[in-house]
Design a protein that fits this description.
The chain is mainly α. The chain has a domain of about 55 residues. About 45% of the residues lie in helices and about 0% in strands. The chain is built from 3 helices and no strands. The two termini are about 20 Å apart.
Length: about 80
Amino acid sequence: ETLSYLKTQEKDMYKTVGLPISEQFTGLGVSKKKPELSEALKVALQSMIDDGSYQAILKKWDLELGAIKTVTINAGK
């Protein structure tokens, strides 16, 4: 993600070569006392994946390589 940002700041200075060498789970913190909020966020985010808006956002910021296909809860444990 950092390289994508740097490429917007210094045009023609950096170039992506090859695929990422690692993967990273990123999540949202939600209280365990609010399982309905966790589920609502999961449904909303999965809807964005399904309708293509998630991919459009990633494309705008050159982050497509980090895309996920399915939203999970506590997959990273």
